[in-house]
Write a structure and sequence with these properties.
Blueprint: E1 9-10, E2 15-16, H1 17-37, H2 39-42, E3 43-47, H3 84-89, E4 146-150, H4 164-175, H5 182-186, H6 207-212, H7 214-226, H8 239-261, E5 263-265, E6 270-272, H9 275-283, H10 286-305, H11 320-338, H12 355-372, H13 379-401, H14 416-449
Antiparallel strand pairs: 1-2, 3-4, 5-6
Length: 450
């Protein structure tokens, strides 16, 4: 797979940087339109404040900067069909839910039976689909702590969140990549915590088990900060483990790109690109940039794969015209991506005899990464951290659990929040690729002047 790859190709994706940049130039206006002009994609519903960090307590990690605060959306600005009063009227999660195990002879549950305003994709968790989720869902129907946020009012940018708290989260995120220490840590004696090193084997998928480890985590919190983050996996690791690492490193790189590109200059009081920030965090780390491009490739592939499924998707936008408008705009984007040769081949993953166990492990580890977002001490960073982990989780669900040609509702159902997260995460990466070229031009200008 992808052997003899020349340097111009993004490893593990078999696509060149130049091709991805060309695609980005072509589709960027459509992504910007969706993420800036279409209500469906500009409001996100999530539990932003209600969930404690399940792994350690970190009251000192709370970010009090103004830039860390999130402005909540006023419920009257939200389309009526999404308001909590309306959502409360809809019956329990089982009501008119399409099963992911629909029998062949049954008509598609999406064709006309759900109605525009009560599609379960709007709010509820399809419980039987849960085992195929790569993220902990955000918008549980009974989540009284859920809030609506306008993503336009809360752009991802520099907040000043840094230090021990931020480092702990990143470190724990990277420790989820320690697939290979599992056998080793199972041999540990029972009076030792069930993870190697600080986070070693990864955090148990079960949140109760995780809560039991909280005290141990608290004790170790300070140790963790002192150590460097774990090294990237060697190239000889299997493709799946490399992909896991690339996804989290690429997400980290994209977040760094945004905070450097939308930096607050305390002298001028203006927001704008900070070249030194870019140099320190990204310019000298081509692997980080490569991983960011890799993520763009997998997001493109996931969105393209949704193409046929969108025909029957209910957008819960409130009225038929808005639903159709949203569908048309999103379909224009998926068509445009699909007009290019595929940029990622997910069929080469999870193929050998250990793949069932490996996939389960991969999924649980990514769910833990999504749980770790509740440990982020800055509200704005937590918001975008949750959106992006959900966006990648959704992309993986589509890549590894979806049949591209299935039109009869047998694929796992995508919740509204998953689709919103997916498209906004694609938007974040599209902006990151753009910012990368802008920073490149600044560096070139500097070189010419010298
Ligand atoms: P960090 O970015 O914290 O990185 C820590 C270490 O990780 C580095 O020293 C390096 O060894 C390694 N590393 C860095 N990048 C990569 C990579 N791409 N791949 C592999 N290893 C890498 N701050 C904001 O201003 N705005 C935000 O929106 C924001 N969102 C955040 C979201 C999350 C989920 C988290 C955990 C933090 C967020 N932060 C945000 C904080 C920001 O990411 C940094 O942690 C902070 O700016 C401190 O940076 P640092 O120089 O210590 O390095």
């Amino acid at each position: 797979y992808c052997s003899n790859e020349p340097n111009s190709l993004v490893s593990d994706a078999c696509v060149s940087y130049a091709t991805l940049e060309d695609i980005n130039t072509e589709i960027r206006p459509a992504i910007q339109f969706l993420t800036q002009q279409v209500d469906f994609f500009t409001y996100y519903r999530l539990d932003l404040y209600g969930r404690e960090c399940p792994f350690w307590s970190d009251d000192a990690g709370f970010c009090a900067n103004r830039a860390c605060a999130v402005e909540l959306a006023d419920e009257k600005d939200i389309p009526e069909s999404w308001r909590s009063s309306e959502l409360g009227k809809i019956e329990g999660p089982k009501a008119s839910q399409p099963s992911s195990e629909v029998k062949k002879e049954e008509p598609s549950p999406f064709k006309g039976t759900l109605g525009e305003d009560t599609a379960e994709s709007c709010i509820f968790e399809p419980q039987e689909g849960e085992s195929r989720d790569y993220c902990v869902p955000e918008d549980e129907s009974n989540g009284s702590n859920c809030v609506y946020v306008s993503l336009l009012d809360n752009p991802e940018r520099f907040t000043g969140y840094a230090g021990t708290s931020a480092n702990n989260v990143w470190r724990a995120v990277y420790q989820e990549n320690c697939f290979n220490t599992q056998a080793q840590s199972q041999k540990q004696s029972s009076n030792q915590p069930p993870f190697g090193g600080a986070f070693g084997r990864g955090i148990p998928a079960d949140p109760n088990a995780a809560a039991n480890l909280k005290n141990v985590m608290d004790r170790r919190k300070h140790e963790v900060v002192q150590k460097n983050l774990i090294a990237p996996p060697p190239e000889e690791q299997c493709l799946e483990k490399r992909v896991f690492y690339r996804v989290i490193s690429g997400m980290h790189a994209s977040i760094s790109m945004h905070l450097c590109y939308n930096f607050f200059n305390q002298t001028t009081g203006q927001w704008g690109p900070n070249l030194q920030c870019y140099k320190d965090r990204l310019h000298n780390f081509p692997d980080r940039i490569q991983n960011m491009y890799f993520n763009y490739a997998i997001l493109l592939r996931a969105v393209a794969k949704l193409r046929k499924n969108l025909n029957h998707y209910t957008f819960c936008a409130g009225d038929k015209r808005t639903n159709e408008f949203t569908r048309k705009k999103l379909s224009a984007l998926t068509d445009s991506i699909a007009s290019h040769p595929s940029v990622f081949d997910e069929s080469v993953m999870f193929r050998d005899e250990n793949s069932i166990v490996l996939k389960e492990d991969f999924r649980n580890r990514f769910r833990n990464v999504s749980r770790l977002m509740d440990c982020v001490g800055c509200d704005k960073c937590r918001l975008w951290g949750k959106i992006q982990t959900s966006g990648y989780g959704t992309a993986m669900k589509i890549l590894f659990e979806y049949d591209e040609n299935e039109e009869n509702g047998r694929n796992p159902v995508l919740r509204r929040t998953e689709l919103v997260a997916l498209i906004n995460t694609l938007g974040r990466l599209s902006n990151s690729l753009y910012a990368f070229t802008r920073f490149g031009a600044m560096i070139e200008r500097e070189r010419v002047i010298e």
